[in-house]
User: What shape does this take?
Amino acid sequence: MTWLFLTSKDLRARLVWLRNVLPFALFALVLAYQFFSSSVLNTFSRELHLLFDLIAYGIIGPVVTWFTLSWVITKVTEGERARAEKAQAEREQRRAVEAAQEQERLLAAVCANSADAIVTMDNTGIIRTWNRGAEMIFGYRADEAIGKHFRLIVPADVEQRGELAWLDQQMREQNFVRNFQTERLTKDGRRVVIDLTRTALLNEQTEIIGTSAIARDITERVRAAQAIQQLNLELETKVVERTRQLAAATEELRRRNAELEKANRELQKLDELKSEFVSMVSHELRAPLTNINGSLELLLQDDAPAHDRNHREMLQIVQEQTMRLTRLVQGILNVSRIEAGKLVLQPQAFNIVALIEKVIGVWDSRGVANRFEHPAILNLPSVWADRDRTEEILFNLIDNAIKYSPEGAMIRLDAQSDGRFAIVSVSDRGIGIPPNEVDKIFEKFHRVDRRDAAENYGHGLGLYICRRLVQAQGGKIWAESVLGEGSTFRFSLPLAGRGELEPSNAKRPSGGGRR
Ligand code: ADP
Assistant: This one.
């Protein structure tokens, strides 16, 4: 093995030694062989002796020479390889040392120029190194800080609350303190918040020989966090305040609602009282009016005792006004019945054309000046409705047509079917209705303002009652009018086929037509 580490000088020395020793060794061997030959081989035959000599000098000599030279070559080769390997190892070691030195320089540069403060102190707290980051954060140059105790940058109150003692204890017990948030003092007296990581520096015997400290200035971050916290607090306070206000407003709303509900209930009660009162008064009025009417009819009969002309005319006026009062009372009674939900319908299948003819007959018999026109209507299916109510509707529409037309004007009645409904129309050539009033005339007590025209008697209930009666039977009612030319009122009623096929719909069939 020692050959491996031979230098070329050592090798030469060994070879010199071999050159000096080998001849003597060979001589000693020859001597030994001669001695052996004279004492042992002479006893053998001459041929055998010759053979031994041949082996000893002809073969052993060259073999020893061959082995010796081979050994020398091997050693020389091994030596060369070992030297080459050693040189390679030395080169690699040099490279590693260079790399380590480079790393060290880099690390030193990083430490020196780091934006974080990197400071080392000995065991007594005296500052030994002070990088650029420390200069920037604390304001002291390296030459101002090195050699001073690091208390230089510790605020008095921080020291008083025992932070330094605590840090020393941590060093002893754990060898480090990580991400400890604290405060330090700069050269110009400002307090900065830092994130501190301290590590004990150990020698080979793991004894603490100092401390390294890395400090990051987190003043801005902490201030921002504090500002956000403050904002959050303010926001929370505002939310609480708003929630309180909202709760108060909700409470107020609830209180007002309760008051409104109470007022509503009282109003409803008053409304009921009013309806009851109106109904009661109307009932009370109807009976005497009926009696008065009957008596007047008797008085005005031709065979009644003779009266003078004036007396008869006055009686006729009294009769007209009584009928007017009767219609009003009847109208009010109808409305209160409808609104109280007491309207009872008795639907049946009947021929609407026959009903139209009957109503025209009644009006004719009253001697009105108007002419009624209605084309022959063939094959119109029966309707499913309350016959008396439908008659009432027709009566009202014809009454209006007469009232709002010049004397003797034509009134036309018609009925058609659209397959589902029968649509009945009453047209006149009267004064017409202004376009903006057409829809309103179906409202309760609504009358068109006609200050410039002759006043017609009315109370604005007829069309309202018609609408409620038509709707209650599953139909609709609407009007078309041209001011000064005339109006057409139409209403729809379900055809009987549907009602009969679907008895459940008999009392409340679905609507048709427009309005
Ligand atoms: P009123 O007793 O006043 O006739 P209605 O409810 O029957 O009450 O009618 C409401 C209003 O509609 C009437 O005041 C009238 O101005 C108008 N009106 C109703 N029918 C006609 C019509 N055929 N022509 C013109 N105006 C009409």
